[in-house]
Design a protein that fits this description.
Blueprint (H helix, E strand, L loop, with lengths): L2 H12 L3 E5 L6 H16 L3 E6 L17 E2 L4 H10 L2 E5 L11 H6 L3 E6 L10 E4 L6 H11 L8 H14 L10 H12 L4 H9 L4 H13 L1 E3 L4 E6 L1 H6 L12 H4 L6 E7 L4 E7 L5 H9 L2 E2 L3 E6 L3 H11 L5
Parallel strand pairs: 1-2, 1-4, 2-3, 4-5, 5-6, 8-9
Antiparallel strand pairs: 7-8, 9-10, 10-12, 11-12
Bound molecules: guanosine-5'-monophosphate and manganese (II) ion (MN).
């Protein structure tokens, strides 16, 4: 984060503009945690700020401080539209392309606000006046910490901010497990714990929040898993009928894809989830095997080297047939 950009942001904040903070569609722990972390930070400086999300987020993040004050376009399009239209400063967090804001994209495209992007995905688009992009960062939450630090304001990090940021670092690193987890990640986590983030409580809030239905759905997912030894690839399918049978709620299928990678010698795991008009796909991989490039090339998606997503327009059978056909292209 260069000093000129930080000075520019300080000047912008001095103007006391109306501010919106935007996460990507289907916000995960890092998106919600970073938005709320930045929100509470700006609140400590009495800024006029709101978080506006394209759609709802899982129950297991609803306990985050002031999660209930997030304006959700799907639930209240009028309030969301008004907030964005009146904003003069807009932070977009945890995404690299305006199209990831989904229903909010047209509003953002027509906005004349000054944009600031803070994100750790590869290949950021060039829509923001200031772009903080660090694909090596474990999470956008750790970048929010670095941003506050660069502002010379580490002491402003209180228990509330620390809790939000810790949550996103924890979820985006797979509980401090992925290759993106460095000694610096632990240093930041340590600082946040010192400031009052409660590790075991946050873990419990996020991961010990399953419904019985979700566990039953997981058993269906694991039963449906196919392992292609010759491709070191595991994939799971879940049809809309199977989802409905287990009363699937937002976030219920999160993490299922990771089980594929626990198979010895596997290098690629995928899950195909049937939505109303398309198949939503998540990919996970090990080491240098690049699912970001794969999702971009074949599934109109993207993400990171070892975690990416995309979509397929068609039936489940067509999606898996296409996947099997192009699989030899995955490296
Ligand atoms: P997940 O599989 O957990 O939904 O997402 C894994 C990673 O890929 C996340 O960083 C997410 O932002 C990104 N991602 C998921 N779906 C899409 C997509 O459709 N397009 C793009 N560009 N990125 C995606
Ligand atoms: Mn993230």
């Amino acid at each position: 984060m260069n000093i000129y950009d930080i000075e520019t942001i300080k000047l912008l904040l001095d103007k006391r503009l109306k501010i919106s903070i935007i996460p990507h569609k289907n916000p995960d722990g890092d998106a919600i945690g970073s938005c709320l972390g930045l929100y509470h930070y700006l609140k400590t400086h009495n800024q006029d700020v709101k978080v506006v999300s394209p759609n709802d987020f899982p129950d297991f993040f609803k306990w985050l401080p002031e999660a209930e004050n997030i304006v959700i376009y799907d639930n209240d399009p009028k309030a969301a539209t008004e907030q964005i239209e009146k904003s003069k400063l807009i932070f977009t967090l945890d995404f690299n392309s305006l199209k990831r804001a989904d229903t909010l994209t047209p509003l953002l495209e027509s906005s004349e606000a000054t944009f600031i992007m803070i994100d750790h995905h590869q290949a950021p688009e060039d829509y923001a006046k200031i772009t903080f992009s660090n694909p090596n960062a474990s999470s956008t939450c750790s970048m929010i910490y670095s941003f506050i630090d660069a502002m010379g304001d580490k002491n402003a990090i209180n228990q509330t901010i620390a809790t939000c940021l810790y949550t996103g670092i924890m979820t985006d690193t797979g509980n401090f497990k992925y290759a993106s987890t460095t000694s610096n990640t632990f240093k930041i986590a340590s600082f946040l714990i010192e400031k009052g983030a409660n590790n075991s409580q946050i873990n419990s809030n996020v991961f010990e929040n399953n419904s019985y239905d979700r566990i039953q759905l997981m058993s269906v997912a694991l039963k449906n898993m196919v392992y292609l030894k010759e491709h070191n690839t595991a994939y799971i399918t879940l049809t809309s009928e199977e989802l409905a049978n287990h009363n699937c709620q937002k976030g219920d299928t999160d993490g299922f894809v990771n089980y594929g990678l626990t198979i010895k010698d596997s290098k690629l795991a995928a899950i195909f989830i049937q939505e109303k008009n398309y198949i939503k796909i998540s990919f996970r991989s090990k080491n240098q095997h690049d699912v970001n490039a794969f999702a971009r090339r074949f599934f109109n998606g993207g993400g990171h080297i070892n975690a990416a997503g995309g979509r397929f327009d068609g039936s489940m059978e067509e999606a898996t047939a296409y996947f099997l056909k192009i699989l030899p292209e995955f490296h």
